[in-house]
Amino acid sequence: MMRARSHFTFAVLGAALLALAACSDDAPEAGPDAASAREQADAEAARVATLTVRPRRIVVYDELPGRVSALRTAEIRPQVSGIVRKVLFKEGSEVSADQPLFEIDPAPFAADVEAASAVLARAKADELNASLKHDRIKALAESRTATAAALGDARAALAQARASVAEARANLTRRELELAHATVTSPIAGRIGQALITEGGLATAGATGPMAVVQQLDRLFLDVRQPSMRREVLEEALANGQGNEADGVPVDILTITGKPYEYQGTIRFSDSTVDPGTGSITIRVEVPNPYDQLLPGMYLRAKVPRSIHPNALTVPQEAVVRDGSGRPQLTVVGADSTASRRPVELGPLVDRQYVILSGITAGEEVVVRGQDRATEGTKLQTVAYQPAVRTDAQ
């Protein structure tokens, strides 16, 4: 029994010694490989995406809200009083210039025309009679059988008769105009709205309310307000040859939801008076509207130029990092491919690109992606930065 236990103990000890020997044999081979891997990892450079800064022309815009108004608006009002017999248009339709819209009962005006014609005929007859009398008295005066006083009276009577004819003719013209105004026409081409008076209604000349409203909608006005200081900066830049003339500058239009409108507007008018309450000026933008997508009263946004940078240095927004105090920095790639953090002064943000006012120069290479790996003095392995494809509608 004791002999069996001895054999078992020796067997266990032998197995343990063999295991220790195997571990000691493997250790010298694994040690150098692990150290080599660690050294290789330490020597590998950080992989980052970089961009070389190049100067380019940047226009900074203000997105300003504004209300749409019609290019021209005509309030249809009667020039004579009377009962409306007919409405000659379809509400909401397009009308042309001089198209008849309403018909006021013309019978009273036609009667006035006939009366005025009769008065003119009587005045012409009186003129003829006065002319004949004048000619007879003039002949008698030449033969010294009529006095000079009689000739003077004849001349005065003739002049009075001619004046009566002129007055009667003017009165007839007025009555004919009133008859013509019994048919109310549109002064402009455009879209007409609701008929504010119907058949049987009384149209009154000089009434405060219109009979209908016609608006020209193929082009519209968008009135926006811009701070006067920003407008002054733009005008100075334009005066220094950094852009085109202020009038006629194209303007991108955005809907109230931020979607771009398919047609550009154009600045047509800039007010010369600053609002003392707000310190802003009114800018009028003309916007094409060929398909009547826009209507008066809508709110839109206009990207009005605020300032122009002819040789701006820009970097993507994601390239800017901040230190512990919140100051902006860029990671610049040095000549030896090492990273260095450099403080910069940021300008406006335009299309997700920061304008850099100071801190870098043209031709320098900055890190856009991988700044967390590009600490101060880190060796860098650079690849060209590729901007992400934007799928959101701007």
Word description of this protein:
Strands 1, 14, 15, 16, 19 and 20 form a six-stranded mixed β-sheet that branches. Strand 17 and strand 18 form a beta hairpin. This protein is an alpha+beta fold and 394 residues long. The protein is built from four helices and 20 strands. The protein folds into four domains: 46-58 and 311-384, conserved putative lor/sdh protein from methanococcus maripaludis s2 fold, CATH 2.40.420.20; 61-70 and 217-308, Efflux pump adaptor protein, beta barrel domain (Elongation Factor Tu (Ef-tu), domain 3); 79-105 and 182-209, RNA polymerase II/Efflux pump adaptor protein, barrel-sandwich hybrid domain (OB fold (Dihydrolipoamide Acetyltransferase, E2P), Beta Barrel), CATH 2.40.50.100; 106-180, Helix Hairpins. The chain is elongated and about 135 Å long. Helix 2 (107-142) packs antiparallel against helix 3 (148-181). Helix content is 31%, strand content 36%. The protein starts with a helix and ends in a 10-residue tail after the last strand. GO terms for molecular function: transmembrane transporter activity. Keywords: Coiled coil, Signal. Residues 1-21 form the signal peptide. This is Membrane fusion protein, multidrug efflux system. Residues 223-304 form the Multidrug resistance protein MdtA-like beta-barrel domain.
Labels describing this entry:
single chain; 394 residues; alpha+beta; conserved putative lor/sdh protein from methanococcus maripaludis s2 fold; Elongation Factor Tu (Ef-tu), domain 3; OB fold (Dihydrolipoamide Acetyltransferase, E2P); 4 domains; six-stranded antiparallel barrel; 4 helices; disordered N terminus; signal; RND_pump_MFP
